[in-house]
Structures are given as structure tokens and as C-alpha cells.
Amino acid sequence: MQTYIVGGFVRDLLLSAEGSAARPNDRDWVVVGETPESMIRRGFKPVGEDFPVFLHPKTHEEYALARTERKTAPGYHGFVFHAAADVTLEEDLKRRDLTVNAIAMTESGDFIDPYGGMRDLKAHVLRHVSDAFAEDPVRILRLARFAARFPSFSVAPETMALMRQMVESGEADALVPERVLAELAKGLACPVPSRMLDVLEACGFWMRRYADIPLGSATRQALHRCILSGLPVSMRFAALTTELADERHVKAFLTSIRASADTVSFAETLKRIEVPLKRLASAEDAVEVFLKADALRRRDRMMLLLEYGSRVFPETLGSQAKQLQRRIEAALEAWCSVNAGAVAKTQTNPRDIASAVLNARCDAVRAAWQASEGS
After folding, report:
1. I need a surface site. Which of 60, 204, 221, 283 has the fewest CB within 10 A?
2. Can you give 23-61 as a three-state secondary structure string?
3. Which residues cross the membrane (predicted)?
């Protein structure tokens, strides 16, 4: 049986040999000269739905039959795959997206590189393998994600030109929001997510899909600070909305890409409290933040919002950002610790209860704020 390791494992193996931080993980195998029936006879277990993929009976690694594909409809679902014993390794590699992902390795460690992937690895270039790249719009997002993962790599001019053609022809319009979300999330988890944004802007994808979502220096700075602070991807989505005018626009954008309810809620609330959060210099500012963020019922989210503010807005929170965060956390504790039931019992008119409870919380915050100023 002719088997070859392909894809990311080979790419990252070669990069690590040159001193890159990339480390090869799971191996993907391509099998040449076999059929589904012969694989099953060898003890492999079929698992692929769209095309023949099998699990090794001992290692449980994935083995896919060499295949070609033919475009039959717009978008990224419109393909017919052909997997047969006569499909060669070179034909299988030709259908892949980038030359750096189209390198195969034998079990003995020899490399097979029919499309110049090793050359492009050394030159740090992301280049499409063939014009078939244009048939799958997901590859625009994948390439942008690779640019974020490998920030020293440039995009080959002919590949950028091809992506622009894909955008202008409307091919990229077929991408569903869920697929865009998945690729954006992966890109935001990379070392330099702004590189992903650079590529999506350069090829016209971002302007065509999200023309009303600016990606200026403030957005990139917020993303950079998220990376430096190790903030999770959900907060990095909030950073994407840095330059939007208000919470309504934030919600519209994140909902349009099918972001999770928690991600939308966090970013929307952040935008709502952004002004008092940046201005946070008094107990009154803290009260405004707590009220607008529904801190009493969503205390965990409030803590995350404070963390984001201290990491991403340090220039507006001032040089005492850490001390200020401790002060606001003490104020939050005071806000939440007021016994509303006890306050209610002191009121003879039920209509006065709500304002009495609010006043008690405000007094508690002022006291905590004043106490922490001297500590």
C-alpha cells in the first residue's frame, strides 16, 4: 500500500527544522492505488461522509484515498470528488490550497514536492497551487488565517490577484456566516490576527462583506493588547468592534456572523459602558458602569469587562490601572453586598423600595471607593 503523510504536519515539520516555533501535530495520510473495498479488507474503518476516509486499525490515524475534485456549483459545497485507484499523488496534491500545504512525505522521510512548496517555505511565501484555488471561497479565509499564524509570510502577488477576482466575481458571497465565523475565530487565536485583517482588506473581501465595520489602527491596537494579555477569543471579537459607534451596530455585526450569545452580550455591554469605563475616576462613574452593565445579575461578566478595560484601555484608565481595578472590584463587592430585603423593610411605601435600594447601593459604593483611596 502506497501511503504518504501530507498537509500541515509536513509543512510544520519543515518549518521546525528551520527554527520556527511551528510544531507538527496530527498526521494526515493519503493512500494511492487503493479502493474503499481494499481498504476495508485491510482492516481500515470507513469514517468519511463526503469522500473515502478511513481509520487505521491500530494507530487510528486518518487515511484518505487520493482524490480529485470537480466544481459543479457556486460556493464551497459545489464539488464532486473522484477517489479511485488510478488517482496519482500529484493529482491529489494539485487540488490543495497552498504550495506549502501540498508537500508529501514518505514513511521513510523522503519529500515529494511537485509544486514548489519547499521553495515557498524557505522564501516565506503563501502561493496557490493551481487555478482550482478560485473554486473554493473558503480558501480566502484560510490563507488570511495562515497569514495571521505565520506573520513573516507574504502573499504571492498572483495569489492576491486571484483572490481579488474571486471577490469581484461574487464567488466569496456564497460563504455562509457560520463558516466565516469559524475561520475568523481561528485567525483571532493566532499570534498576529491583524495580518488576517490585512489580507481580507487587501483582497476586497472585508469591504464587500462588512463595509460598515472599520478596521483602523484602534481596532488593531485593541487586538494587539488582547494578544499580549492572553485574553480569550470571545474578547478578541469584541476588539473587532472597537471602532463601531454604538452597541446596536456591535450587536448587528456579531449577530450577522452568528457569534455566540455570550460573545454578543459581552461586546454589546462593553460598548454600552465604554465611555464611563474609560473615564472611571469616581464612585459615580462606577455606579454608572454597574447600572449599564447589569452588574448585580451578571457579576461574572462584569469582572471580565473590568479585565478587558484594564488590559485594553490602559492609556485612558491611567498609570494606576491596577490600583484602579482593585478599587472598582471593591466597589463592585459593595454594590452586590447590599441586602435589598433589609432595605425594603425600612420603607413604609412600596413605591419607594426600588429607589431606596439603589440609594443604599450608591452609598455602599461611595464608602468602598473612599476607603480604597486611602489604602
Report:
1. 60
2. CCCCCEEEEECCCHHHHHHCCCEECCCCCCEEECCCCCC
3. none
Domain extent, residue 59, equals: 1-115
Does residue 228 sit within a domain? no
Model confidence over 350-362: pLDDT tens digits?
Answer: 999 999 999 999 9
CB 286 within 8 A of CB 328: yes
Distances in Å between the Cα of 194 and the Cα atoms of 25, 200, 205 are 25, 10, 15
Q: Which helix (H) or strand (E) holds 307?
A: helix 299-312
CATH number assigned to the domain comprising residue 84: 3.30.460.10
Alpha helices for 189-259 (secondary structure H): 193-202, 205-210, 217-229, 233-240, 247-256
pLDDT at 279: 83
Half-sphere exposure of 66 (CA within 13 A, CB side): 22
The domain tally of the chain equals: 1
Q: If DSSP codes are grouped into helix, strand and coil, which group holds residue 154?
A: strand
Average pLDDT, the chain: 91
In a domain, 349, yes or no: no
Write the pLDDT tens digit of every residue in 294-330: 999 999 999 999 889 888 987 665 555 667 778 888 9
pLDDT, one tens digit per residue, over 117-171 is 999 999 999 999 999 999 899 999 999 999 999 999 999 999 999 999 999 999 8
CA pair distance 222, 226, nearest whole angstrom:
6
Residue 336 within a domain: no
Between strands 62-65 and 28-32, the pairing is parallel
